[in-house]
Specification:
Length: 327
């Protein structure tokens, strides 16, 4: 069966760094405490995309896993991104065997320190050689990791280029691997989401996790059970409301909450920097810097947040959150 925590907002935890780029363990614990206090986060995913996963070195993964699992022990489930080490430079792919062995070792380490599950990105890092099929390369990789651990494995497709992007056909194959319990796909394409959910409909051991929060309502309509996006950190109460209202049959109310979530995504200029600054203001001390990054997409370095940007988005965020205060 799919673990119970695959329901509602799963926080793609932003990574906290010192000014020199090293991991800030104390600041990371403060960040986790702030999310815990919302009482709306179902699980905590460290070494996530918005947590700059492609900047991680091997020991960084162990450090953040050890820190988060110890801090949240008995309080909340922790998922750890345990793919091999790669900076997403497609002109310099890692050695296949090394990348796979790293994923195995990191997954076993995460299990040993108490993780509830591990997360593997679709392995476009492995490339495809002439005469190979992408699905065979992926299957071999997933199966090797699955054989090494007993905790659930979740797949993660960020902005993955062809030919590695999952299709309904390949998703059915991956869903049948023992121990693989779900996938997060970073897309707001409702048609694509429907096709993927339809492919695994009725599969009791596999869940579709909406990977772009602006499509959460659409995902719920076709079978998604959880969501991972910046709002799962910044405004989990709103995403929780989308799902609660949907499950209660209040579709108009769910759509209204979804609109609030979408508005916050559209208006956020640098969600990670904003939220770290915001939490500092709330008394949760942590570094606010990002690591230099070569990657594209969400992990790409963004321009600094101006004071005016910060004040404008803070007002908007607090105005929207006020609509969904519980109790």
């Amino acid at each position: 069966m799919v673990p119970e925590y695959v329901h509602g907002p799963i926080a793609n935890v932003f990574t906290v760094f010192h000014d020199d780029g090293t991991l800030d363990d104390e600041g990371q614990r403060n960040f986790l405490d702030a999310l815990l206090a919302t009482e709306c986060v179902s699980a905590f995913f460290v070494r996530s995309g918005m947590g700059q996963m492609y900047t991680f070195q091997f020991e960084d993964v162990k450090q953040i896993a050890r820190n988060a699992c110890k801090h949240l022990e008995g309080l909340a489930p922790v998922l750890v991104g345990t793919s091999g080490i790669w900076d997403r430079d497609y002109d310099r792919l890692p050695d296949r065997e090394v990348y796979t062995q790293q994923a195995i070792e990191l997954s076993k380490y995460a299990q040993d320190v108490g993780a509830a599950g591990v997360v593997l990105t679709i392995p476009d890092a492995l490339g495809v050689y002439p005469g190979e099929k992408v699905e065979d390369v992926c299957m071999a990789y997933f199966e090797k990791v699955a054989e090494a651990v007993t905790i659930p494995i979740f797949l993660y497709q960020p902005r993955t280029p062809e030919p590695f992007a999952v299709t309904p056909e390949t998703l059915r194959m991956y869903a049948d691997i023992p121990g693989v319990k779900g996938i997060k796909v970073s897309t707001a394409d409702a048609g694509y989401i429907l096709d993927l959910c339809h492919a695994v409909a009725g599969h009791e051991d596999f869940a579709y996790i909406t990977g772009n929060e602006t499509a959460f309502y659409a995902g719920l309509c076709v079978g998604s059970t959880a969501v991972i996006g910046q709002g799962a950190c910044i405004n989990p109460i709103i995403l929780r409301t989308v799902q609660d209202r949907y499950e209660q049959g209040d579709h108009a109310g769910a759509i209204e909450a979804q609109y609030s979530a979408n508005l916050l995504v559209r208006k956020a200029k640098n969600a990670v920097e904003f939220f770290k600054r915001y939490l500092n203001e709330k008394g949760y001390r942590m570094g606010t810097t990002a690591r230099p990054s070569k990657t594209t997409g969400k992990a790409k370095d963004k321009g600094p947040l101006t004071d005016e940007d910060y004040k404008t988005f803070k007002f908007l965020l607090e105005s929207e959150l006020a609509k969904y205060v519980r109790g």
